[in-house]
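Q: Hand in one record:
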Amino acid sequence: MADTAHDLSTVTLLPVPDTRPGGVFWRTLRDNLPGALSWGLGYGVLIAVATVLYPLLNESNTVFTVLNGLGLMNFLSAGRDVDILTSYPGYLALQVMNFGPLILAVYVIPQALRAVNHEERQGTLDILLSTPISRWRFVTEKVLAIVASIGIILLLAWLSMMISPVLLIDTSLDATHATASVWHLLPISLVVFMATLMLSVAMRDGRHAGPVAATLLMISYFVRIMSDMTPNPVLDAIKPFSIFSYYRSVAAIGEGFQWSYDAVLLIAVAVLLGLALAAFQRRDLGV
């Protein structure tokens, strides 16, 4: 009798996809949780270190001297009391929160690239989409999971912002203004995320979307900086197209929520998400 036994030890079984509502969301959030916690703790430590340094810099008047020497005092103080810039909230806004969109971009751009392209390269996207999971649901759950990951980072940053000054320099931040400052990071970070996601599904080779998104981000940043420092008709004309024109770290921490600026960015998020969904619906999938 012929031996019909087979050695199954080398057979690799693909995981059975979870097709329940929220399955993609929870799997993505679980995979992202360690990284989100690490980034949140790192940002919190940055806030704590800046807080420790503030009394030393304030006593030597270093903050004012540096800003004045760089020629930044004029446009930063426009429409607000100069003292806010050298106070602890203003110092924190300039030294930590001002660079928050660039710091978070290092996290959200790879997340946007992984959302679709990683699944596609691993060969799991075809399996997922062969189940009742539709394309729009797949993208939506992925997006919500990554937004939740960003929320974890910002929550840890907010906790550090509330706790660090109390423990380290015996002062405190207004809770509403601290919340407004952290919240203000979310819309601009979502624009970067959605723009990268849209590029990654619209471009033939999604791996090129990362460099393109990073380049556009830096151009947008320098347009805002240069237009503020050296007024120029050309720069003034294109400044409204810079997402950093709608990010006001000093105003958020000093005055509270910047709803009008946040609204512009959130509208851009909705438009970019719609474009990403439309591009993904038309995309030919393959490994």
Remarks:
- Residues 23-282 form one domain.
